[in-house]
Structure formats: C-alpha cells, structure tokens
Amino acid sequence: MSVRGVLLDVDDTLVDTRGAFRHAWSQLTERFLPHVGDVEEVVRAWRADDGGFYSAYTQGRLDYLEQRRHRVEALHARFGAPPLGEAGFTEWNALFEDGFRAGWRAFDDALEAVAQLRAARVSVGVVTNAATPYQRLKLDAVGLADLPVLVGVDLFGFGKPDPRVFAEGARRLGLEPGEAAYVGDELHADALGASRAGLTGVWLDRPGWRGRPVRPEEVDGAREEGVRRIESLRELSGALGLG
Ligand SMILES: [Mg+2]
User: Fold this and answer.
1) Which of 102, 125, 147 is the last residue of a domain?
2) Which of 37, 86, 118, 146 is most enclosed, with most CB atoms within 10 A?
3) Residue 175 Cα, ligand 1 centroid: separation in angstroms?
4) In angstroms, what is the span from residue 14 Cα to ligand 1's centroid?
5) Residue 110, C-beta contacts closer than 8 angstroms, at least 6 positions apart
6) CB hemisphere CA count around 76 (13 angstroms)
C-alpha cells in the first residue's frame, strides 16, 4: 500500500533540540556547574537521561516538572554539584526555559521536507512525546506554524512507542495505520514503535546525532522489522517512494 500520510516527530527531527539544549546549558553550566569545563559533556549527559526520567514522563509515571527536576538533580549529582533543592530548582527551571526557547531552530531540511510531502499530496502532522501546547509554541517559533500537532503525550497520558499513539495519529489524518509513515530520530520509541503499530517506520539517523548508543544488531533487527533508515529529511520522500 502506498503512503498517503506522514507523521513526524518534533525534537531532533524537525527541531534542533540538541542545539537548543546546548544554548540553555551554556548559561546553566556557567551558573550551576562552573567547575565543568566542557558544556558538550553536560549536554550529552542531559540528552542521554540515564535515569530514564523523561521516559517515565512519557509513560505517565512522573509529571513534566517532576521528571525535569529528577533529571537535573541526577545530572548535578553526576557532576559533583550540590542538589538544587526546591528554590534552586525554580530558579534553574526559569533559566532553562529561557535558554531552551531562545535556542529553538528548525533543521535546514525540515521545512523543505514538509513542503515536498505536501507537493506530493501527502497529508502531514506531528505525533510527539511532549505536551501539545508546548510543541505548538515550538513549531510556531521555528516557521512550522501550519503543521498540525495531532497527538501529544497529554492526549492519552502516555506516549510513543505505545501503538495506540501512532494509530491515533493516522486516524487523525483520516488514514489506516498501514497508509501512514512515521519518521523520528529514536530507533525504538519512533521507528520501531511505528512499525510495530502497522505504520511504515522511518528512522532518521542524522550522522553524529544519536542521543544514546545504538548497537549494530539493533539496527539490523529494526531493518528486518521493516524500518527504513535515512540520514536526512531530504531522503524522506525517496525512502517512501514518493518521487
Ligand atoms: Mg525526537
């Protein structure tokens, strides 16, 4: 069956979220972790989220601010900084939000890919593991105001890779799962999750961009489950056979 709709992830797929984290952490490191010389090391640890706090949020086990607080306290502990505590977290969080939002940018290939899909008469929309209003703000800020946020983690109280999330995205495009593709930068939460929900799963594996290491056998296994791998959104239409 040919693909009639494409659902997209936001963070590190359409929006350079790593760059926005770097923007936020360059100020936060100076203020809270001045003994750490390398901001990149902090950004890496933040993205890796070894405690799995963001994932707990997407499973409905922590609320948004709780996960963020656990995540930053774990990071402070890892770098030998004192805990922020209640008041410290409030200050930290305000600085984080300011720096993060000021760093929001779309990837060069994002606007182009969305335009190309529309030109091929493919319907498009976003399915995301962050809250709908927050992602709306983010997409508006980066020039993707006309891209609908179809499913956010707030809709069901849980997120990807639950198959119901992908099925709902397809349904909101008026399609069956088998008529839709999903593209995202996370192999398991995005591409494999979508594939197991009956969509065409596309893994956007931007060179040097993985937030967590992925083993070659995981990549092979995903391919066997039908996941298609691309390195840029410029390859998306071609990978879906849309010309
Ligand atoms: Mg992502």
Assistant:
1) 102
2) 118
3) 23
4) 8
5) 13, 14, 15, 142, 144, 233
6) 17
- Span 192-232, pLDDT tens digits: 999 999 999 999 999 999 988 999 999 999 999 999 999 99
Query: Could you give the number of structural domains in the chain?
Result: 2
Separation of 128 CA from ligand 1 center, angstroms? 8
Together in a domain, 26 and 10: no
CATH code: domain of residue 152: 3.40.50.1000
Query: Ligand 1 centre from 9 Cα, in Å?
Result: 6
Residues with CB under 5 A from ligand 1 (ion): 9, 11-12, 185
What are the pLDDT digits (tens) for 113-146?
A: 999 999 999 999 999 999 999 999 999 999 999 9
Q: For residue 196, give both structure tokens.
A: 């197991």
Instruction: Looking at the structure, tell me whether residues 79 and 176 fall in a common domain.
Output: no
Chosen domain end from 56, 74, 102: 102
Q: Which domain holds residue 153?
A: 5-16+105-239
Measure 12 CA to ligand 1 centroid, in angstroms: 5
Separation of CA 70 and ligand 1 centre (Å): 20
Report the predicted TM-score, pTM, of the whole model to 2 decimal places.
Answer: 0.95
Distance 82 CA to ligand 1 centre (A): 30
Question: Are residues 77 and 130 both part of a single domain?
Answer: no
Query: What are the helix (H) ranges across 79-200?
Result: 85-102, 108-119, 132-141, 153-156, 163-172, 193-196
Other CB atoms within 10 Å distance of the CB of residue 76: 17
CA of 11 to the centre of ligand 1 (A): 4
